[in-house]
Design goal:
183 residues; 5 helices
């Protein structure tokens, strides 16, 4: 039994004048889409760079305040702990925020930014000389800085900008607490 369809003639494509020449329009649309995508990428990269700069600046300001706290200490060991925290804030808010990275804070920085920074050096029998408002702000700036590297795993621009803004606000609160009586 023969297939009746196999006996039908195969028609060749018609000349190009029977088809509209929209290949040029497709090329133009593709170029426009590529240009829009490139502009969006460039805009996103600029926003990320701005967020990174904002975070680094906020970290520097917070670290400067923590260095002021360190300089006020009579016990050099407490000053060293606070100075280490200041350096960790700088690293965590700038050098550790690596777009495309794993978003992890190295162990040494996590240790230096832990909440027990407000206790100062261990086995001294004293606490650092900090005002009540400064203690809370110190813990908060350390926590905010420690959270910054993790932003690379989410919406870096939005999250890092929020943390940087909060870091600036918390630093201002800590500085304002300087007028309080030492507790």
């Amino acid at each position: 039994m023969t297939n009746s369809l196999s006996s039908l003639p195969v028609s060749a494509p018609r000349p190009t004048d029977d088809y509209p020449d929209d290949l040029g329009a497709d090329d133009e649309r593709a170029e426009q889409a590529a240009a829009r995508a490139a502009a969006a990428r460039e805009e996103h990269e600029l926003a990320v760079r701005e967020a990174l700069a904002l975070a680094a600046d906020a970290g520097e300001a917070a670290a400067a305040w923590v260095r002021e706290l360190a300089a006020r200490q009579d016990d050099e060991r407490h000053a060293l702990v606070l100075g280490n925290a200041a350096e960790a804030i700088v690293h965590a808010s700038a050098r550790e925020v690596i777009p495309g990275g794993e978003g992890r804070l190295v162990e040494e920085l996590r240790y230096r930014l832990a909440a027990d920074v407000l206790l100062g050096a261990t086995h001294t029998g004293t606490l650092p000389e900090l005002r009540t408002g400064e203690r809370l702000a110190l813990v908060a700036v350390c926590a905010l800085a420690a959270a910054m590297p993790g932003c690379v795993l989410g919406d870096l621009e939005r999250e890092l900008t929020l943390l940087a803004d909060e870091l600036n606000a918390t630093t201002a609160i800590g500085r304002a607490a300087a007028t309080e009586t030492l507790a």
